[in-house]
Each structure stands twice: as C-alpha cells, then as structure tokens.
Amino acid sequence: MKQIRGFFEKQGFFILLAVCIGVIVASGIWAMSIKEKSGDDLPTDASGMYAQRLEEAEKLRMICPVKGKTLRAFSSMAWLPGLAQWGAHEAMDIAAEIGVSAQAAKEGIVSAAFRDKLWGAVVEISHADGLVTRYCGLKWPLPVKTGESVAMKQAIGQVGIAEVEAVDGPHLHFEALLNGVPLDAAMYMIEN
Fold it and tell me: pTM of the entire structure?
C-alpha cells in the first residue's frame, strides 16, 4: 500500500495532467463531430444572408418626424421623470418648439388619431411589413383622421406637450414597433 501511495505522491500531478489533456482532446473530437453533422444545415452564402438583412433594413427606412436634439433615446431602462420611476423608454424624445410641424416618418395609413389625457394628441400610422409608428405629445386638433392615407413627410400634427413627459418641455415622443415589438427608430432613420 505504501508503494502505491508513494507512486501517486510522486507521479500524481502527471497522471492528473494526462487525464485533463485526455478530456480536452475528447471534447474537441466530440465538438468537431457535432459541427460536421450540423454543417449541412448552415447557410453557405454569407453574402446572401447579408443582402437579405440589408433588404429587410431598407424596408424600415424612415425620416425623423421633427428636426431637433434627441432628449431621451430608446433604451431598455431609463429614469422616467414624468412617472417618477425607472422603466423602459421604448421611444425617442425629440426636442422641438411648440407648434413645429411633425411629419409622417414614412407613407402609410393612419390607424389611430385621438386625444389622450397623459400623452396629448396621438397619431398612429400603420406601414407595410408590420411597421407601426406612433407620435405622441401633439396639439389638438389633428389635421389627419383614422383611415386616411399619408405620404412620407406629410404633416400629421404640431408639437405640443405630453402631460406625462411635461418635465422635459415640448418635444415629440416617437415610437416605432415592428410586429408589435418596439424598435430603436434612430437605427433606421435617413436624412430628410
């Protein structure tokens, strides 16, 4: 028994090292076999994938509805002073003087045009491919009505103040949703 114990005391490190190397090599062989099996399912044309993504992004291209400085960008978590709490700010707030014309970010159909106690006058436009844009903090009355077609850059209202974000001063609260999921509209804006 003393001989076995002595052997492991002298050679234990090397035995453990050999076992670890064996495990690493076996893991590598296993990973390579999985890659080879699933290789047929992977797209081989990366440029085709890039072109498809670029085409999808082009469909979402829009103009900024008002010219001004971004007061609050799209973010998953932000301090919302009007609500006095932390929360998602799934929109962009763009500073503008009261009365400045807000334009449709792209062509579409007005799916809603109404007055809200917290958000002021609100216009919602449905666009092709599941995109919806929403403009809050407008003055009442609105120049557009539900069901009306609007062109890109068409005036849809004038900047006012949304009660819920009044602490930020006059600005347009602009949201974009793709199939009901909020997205950062700034990523898709083009010069106008």
Answer: 0.71
Question: Is beta strand 85-89 parallel, antiparallel or unpaired with respect to 75-80?
Answer: antiparallel
- DSSP per position, 36-80: HHHGGGS-S-HHHHHHHHHHHHHHT-EE-SS-S-EEE--EEEEEE
Name the helix (H) or strand (E) containing 99: none
Count CB neighbours of 177 within 10 A: 18
169: amino acid identity, one letter? G
Say how far apart CA 131 and CA 145 lie, in whole Å. Answer: 19
Q: What is the pLDDT along the chain (192 residues), one digit of tens a residue?
A: 566 566 556 676 777 777 778 778 777 777 776 655 554 454 556 667 777 777 777 889 999 999 999 998 998 677 767 667 787 889 999 999 999 999 999 999 999 999 999 999 999 999 998 999 999 999 999 999 999 999 999 999 999 999 988 988 999 999 999 999 999 999 999 876
At 124, phi and psi to the nearest 5?
A: -120, 130
Residue 100 CA, distance from chain mean position: 27
Q: Measuring CA to CA, how many Å separate 93 from each of 73, 119, 128, 161, 178?
A: 6, 12, 24, 11, 19
Q: What CA–CA distance (Å, rounded) separates 94 from 172?
A: 5
